[in-house]
Amino acid sequence: MTRSGPGEPAAAPEDSTLASRRSFLKTGLLGGAAVAGGLASGRALAAGDPAITEIQDWNRYPGEGVDARPYGTPSEFEGNVVRRSVSWLTADPISSVNFTPLHELEGIITPNGLCFERHHAGITIIEPTEHRLMINGLVDRQLVFTMADLKRFPRVNHAYFLECAANSGMEWRGSQLNGVQFTHGMVHCVVYTGVRLKDLLDEAGIKTTGTWLLAEGADASAMTRSIPMEKAMDDCIVAFAMNGEALRPEQGYPLRLVVPGWEGNMWIKWLRRLEIGDKPWHQREETSKYTDLLADGVARRFTWVMEVKSVITNPSPQAPITHGRGRTVLSGLAWSGNGTIKRVDVSIDGGRNWHTARIDGPSLPRALHRFYYEFDWDGSELFLQSRAVDELGFVQPTKDELRTARGENSIYHNNGIQTWHVGPDGAVENVEIS
Ligand SMILES: Nc1nc2c(c(=O)[nH]1)N[C@H]1C(S)=C(S)[C@@H](COP(=O)(O)O)O[C@H]1N2
Ligand SMILES: [Mo]
């Protein structure tokens, strides 16, 4: 390395450095922040670094005016920050999935354009003025709402994670996909705006025999799931906005069901109908799919809650350590369908020693939590793991513990501890050691 990294002591500025600094001051272009960065926490102010000693084009010419992008898009230099799919996973993109680039994101909120997509019959395009939500079945009054009708109910705002029950499903029997985007990217966390499902159900008047609700989508898959009335009356939202703007077409525009903490499949997109009944409907998505085949051949059904889980997003296979030894920031995400995350532990030696990570940012129930662990990397190989504990005291299990409890046949509901191997060169690989 020619310049000292952040983990190494900053060298005293040499005379030549001071000289170039003085000439910079003369031109009147020196940013105060650059000096502070160079002397305090950054690399030593190096002579002859044209990135700081030369005036760049962006410093010389004015840029585009306002309205160059009426709907703003990310910097052209962030073009690699995209959803990605795995081509061999599904036969056709209309019934497929892509993945959130977790290793490229900060904080707890997923930008709308990066929320993973899971469709069973493609992205349905709905004209909002023609969209209707119907409530029928065991109710006093069968009702139909337009979007305008719905927006006259009191609104609520909540940040919630959505995790597909199949997230990490490919990893049940061993490590397989080399990237946190692919092993854990079927999760996103969004601030939803909508109306309480309870308010709509109260308006219809649920009969005392009405103990189950069937939610149905307006897409060609007519996705349908049974939801127990206690959950429907508790915290479910009929949402029309995400992160402050209308739902994206991929996420169910103009209306989707939000079922906090429960598996993503129940969050019906393009929501068109709510039927009230006295028993579950046993639809395809709650029998053939989204059930857990146990070791004895029995399929466990209705495992709705997404249990406590975490993963280190950086470093990870798509985000290796490139700065060499010294000061290193480890970052990750934790979440639980049971509420908030109480603690996250991090190990850099494959679970022998654990350190309490620092949770930073809002700690909201059933939302993603961001954690950090800062350490000095000595350049030796590491086995990185994270283990979350939720507010009910549930501890994220190892994959061996999961397989002992549930056998080898499962796909869904894998909340096991993930291990990343870091080599001396900083390259990261998906491995399994426990
Ligand atoms: N109408 C409808 N709703 C749906 C689906 C669908 O294909 N059609 N897919 C479900 C599944 S399996 C998941 S994991 C989530 C994915 O939500 P997202 O695409 O917003 O990430 O939507 C659920 N709701
Ligand atoms: Mo899903």
List keywords for this structure.
binds molybdenum atom, 434 residues, 14% helix, globular, five-stranded antiparallel β-sheet, Sulfite Oxidase, Chain A, domain 2, 28% strand, Immunoglobulin-like, alpha+beta, binds the ligand Nc1nc2c(c(=O)[nH]1)N[C@H]1C(S)=C(S)[C@@H](COP(=O)(O)O)O[C@H]1N2, five-stranded mixed β-sheet, 23 strands
Counted by DSSP, the helix tally is 9
> What is the CATH H-level superfamily of the largest domain?
Oxidoreductase, molybdopterin-binding domain
Quaternary structure of the protein: single chain
- CATH C-level class of the largest domain is Alpha Beta
Radius of gyration: 25 Å
Give the number of domains: 3
**Strand percentage, roughly?**
25-35%
Structural category is alpha+beta
Bound compounds, each kind once, are: the ligand Nc1nc2c(c(=O)[nH]1)N[C@H]1C(S)=C(S)[C@@H](COP(=O)(O)O)O[C@H]1N2, molybdenum atom
CATH topology of the largest domain: Sulfite Oxidase, Chain A, domain 2
Estimate the global geometry from the Cα principal axes: globular
At CATH level 2, the architecture of the largest domain is: Alpha-Beta Complex
- Count of DSSP strands: 23
Q: How many angstroms separate the termini?
A: 36 Å
Main sheet: strands, sense, barrel:
5 strands, mixed
Average pLDDT across residues?
91
Question: Unreliable runs, pLDDT <50, ≥5 residues?
Answer: 1-40
What is the helix fraction of residues, given as a range? 10-25%
Enumerate the strands of the largest sheet in spatial order, edge to edge or round the barrel.
Answer: 4-3-12-7-8
